[in-house]
Amino acid sequence: MSADFLYGIEVLINGLMAGVLYALVALGFVLIYKASGIFNYAQGVMALFGALTLTGIMSGQVPFAHLINATFGTHIHNFGWNVPALGAIALTLVVMVCFAWMVQKFVFRHLVGQEPIILFMATIGLAYFLEGMGDLMWGSDIKKLDVGLPQGGSRWVEDITAGLGGDDFYGFFIDKLDMVATLVAAILVISLVMFSQYTKQGRAMRAVADDHQAALSVGISLNYIWILVWSLAGLVALVAGIMWGAKSGVQFSLSLIALKALPVLMLGGFTSIPGAIVGGLIIGVGEKLFEYLIGAPFLGGATENWFAYVLALIFLVFRPQGLFGEKIIERV
Amino acid sequence: MFYREAGDFKTSYVADSQTFPLKLDKVGFWVTMMVAWGVIPFVITDYWASALLVPFLIYAIAAIGLNILTGYCGQVSLGTGGFMAVGAYACYKLMTSFPDVNILIHILLSGGITAAVGTAFGLPSLRIKGFYLAVATLAAQFFLVWLFNKVSWFYNYSASGQINAPERLVAGFAVTGPASPAWAQYLVCLFFVTLCALIARNLTRGSVGRSWMAIRDMDIAAEIIGVNPLRAKLSAFAVSSFFVGIAGALFFAVYLGAVEVGEAFGIQKSFLVLFMIIIGGLGSIFGSFAGAAFLVLLPVALKIVGVDWLGWPTDLVAHFQLVIVGALIMFFLIKEPHGLAHIWGLAKEKLRRWPFPY
Q1: How many CB atoms lie within 10 A of CB B55?
Q2: Contact state of A316 with B127 under an 8 Å Cβ cutoff
Q3: Rounded Cα gap, residues B163 and B118, in angstroms
Q4: Which residue is closest to A110 within chain B, CA to CA?
Q5: Taking CB atoms and an 8 Å limit, are B134 and A117 in contact across chains?
Q6: Which of A39, A122, A320 is opposite residue B329, by nearest beta carbon?
Q7: What pLDDT band is residue A332 in, cutting at 50, 70 and 90?
Q8: Which residue of B has its CA nearest to A314?
Q9: pLDDT of residue A153
Q10: Do B274 and A121 touch (CB under 8 A)?
């Protein structure tokens, strides 16, 4: 096999792994959208906020330290303790659930029955709010997130595959972190599907997604389900935040993964969990291969920023509801 | 008592359908115009121009443009920043390719070029609706910014990748370039704002505007009663992009003078203009002005309060600004979905009855 072809396969594998992470973020969108019809733009910022809170708790930072120091002229920064990773993750989850409750109580309860586009714009406002809040609480400098995930290229994959090609092929380079992330994402996706298929809460969630009024009339509390769904989205966001944060540090650009997930959703359809997964894989592989085959050699590179959108746009022209979305029926 | 419509009788249809049917409104309008054209240019300082008035006027044009598309025609666009970039780069290419032609004509032409680009990106709207479309317009945003970054023809192969506005004169006075005086910048922007607001106001109350609103309220029903959705949607995209392009050209040539595309016309700009029309009021020309004024004033006011009075560091104030803008967006969507324009309307209603409310 020629080395070029093998490098193509390496790009493909890396694309699949990136795709799984996109799917993970997209899943958070689908959960909220199905249950409440809210298209949550703030999902990416929730990932950032989750990761920021996690690093803050782990290093024992004082929340709002910057603000307190500026107002009272004090010099406090740390509590002086470190919380182990698992404990910090649990605490962060508590914070995310509180956040879910507050979002429901103060914002979206008052917007029930509004048009989807109004709800969408409200989540853009929420994204700004949360971004500013995260910066105020934990500071806006780039933080390292180390929860003990393995880093760096995987030697044994390289060694095993080195023999496949000729002399100028050194084996596949695959990041260990990517492999772990793929595994975690796969586990999370499977457990979420199991949750929504086989538990009481999951069934209630699907009932709400089907029809709000019918769900209400059989005694399901919409409020409870919505808080549950926002908490689940918070969990998904936290996992995505940990994976991306471990990879490139916790910083503002983390919130931009939401922008990566939007074309995934358009492609897969806003209402479909399998759609989010398949869409994520298509986008992940598509943008890496396009960059490798056409973008870098002919177009000057950095095509990853827009390729996903253009691909999704072309798909949408032929299937306006995405690949797996429910058929759009319009009535007058 | 002070604001009343009693005794203001109309005897013809023309008189009844004018822009400002009340005499008081008409007087208010002309007083504003006289202050804007006759007083401010003589008293304006550099600080006022660069911190408040020029950005306010430019954003007002962009907000009117987006309001036509989103507020009147119901097509949410997140590509405003990208279209502003088209206006800026078109203006730059025209300025450097045809240095002898008047800059005002260049700015109008760059609006026209942006209109063509906007129409092309509006084509999917015929098939994609709601926020599928909103997300699709992001494709325009990212693609256009990437294009202006990568294709060096657009920035005349300059090493820095920036574009710099050369000095151009109107009637003997520099309006672009570093040497241009504040009042000249202000007057150029004011000229285009007046022009755009007049065009927008008259389009939105004519048959074109009514067909946009019909599409916004329910596109299938509009189609059944004979509104051509192709023409309505594409004309909204074209007119909207025309205004946004003019705003982009002014933003680059008159206001900033030197532009790096990712920084000046990134997605943050799209959101900023969208926030302006939400806070100001969807589907209102006055709202576009109010929203632009509000979001231009807010950072300045916060800076004065936070940095100068409370002595906070600037980054802290910047974080607070994000929190406040986000909270305001949610607050307005919950409490006042029609924005500042509606509050103004309510205030007028109150004034009408004051001091004897019933």
Answers
A1: 20
A2: yes
A3: 22
A4: B334
A5: yes
A6: A122
A7: low
A8: B124
A9: 67
A10: yes
Q: Could you state, in order of their start, the residue ranges of all structural domains in chain B?
A: 44-353
Task: Kindly report the pTM of this predicted structure.
Answer: 0.87
**Count of all residues that appear for chain B in the document:** 358
Cα A229 to Cα A103: distance, rounded to the nearest angstrom = 11
* Interface-testing mutation among B334, B336, B338, with chain A (most A C-beta atoms within 10 A): B334
Nearest chain B residue to A139 by CA distance is B316
Instruction: Pick A302 or A56 by higher pLDDT.
Output: A56
Select, from the ranges A97-111, A242-256, B3-17, the one with the highest average predicted confidence (pLDDT): A97-111
**Closest residue in A to B311 (Cα–Cα):** A70
Q: Cβ A305–B150 below 8 Å, yes or no?
A: no
pLDDT at A131 over 80: yes
pLDDT in tens, B21-45: 788 888 889 999 999 898 888 888 8
Rounded to whole angstroms, how far apart are CA atoms B172 and B183?
14
Retrieve residue B174's tokens.
């520099």
SS (H, E, C) B230-243: HHHHHHHHHHHHHH
Task: Provide ipTM, 2 decimals.
Answer: 0.82
Q: How many Cβ pairs within 8 Å bridge chains A and B?
A: 144
Averaged pLDDT of chain B: 87
Given the candidates 1.10.1740, 1.10.3470, 1.20.1070, 1.10.287, the CATH classification of the domain at B44-353 is 1.10.3470
A140 vs B127: CB contact, 8 Å cut-off? no
β-bridge partners, B174 = B169
Q: Which residues of A touch B131 (CB under 8 A)?
A: 39, 116-117, 120
Partners of B152 on chain A (C-beta within 8 Å) are: none
Neighbours of A257 (CB within 10 A): 23
What is the mean predicted confidence (pLDDT) over A156-182? Answer: 70
Q: What residue numbers bound the domain in which A159 lies?
A: 3-318
A310: nearest CA partner in chain B:
B139
Check residue B206 and report its DSSP letter: S
- At residue B180, the pLDDT reads 82
Computed from CA positions of residues B85, B86, B89, B95, in that sequence, does the dihedral angle turn out positive or negative? negative
Contact B271 A124 (CB under 8 A): yes
Domain count, chain A: 1
What is the predicted pLDDT for the residue at A155?
A: 67
DSSP secondary structure letters along A107-155:
IGGGGTT--HHHHHHHHHHHHHHHHHHHHHHH-SS-B---SS---SB-H
Residue A154 inside a domain? The answer is yes
Query: How far apart are alpha carbons B230 and B294 in whole angstroms?
Result: 35
Average pLDDT over residues A94-121: 86
Chain A contact set for B339 (CB, 8 A)? none
Residue-level pLDDT at A171: 66
Question: Which residues in chain B touch residue A116, judged by CB atoms under 8 angstroms apart?
Answer: 130-131
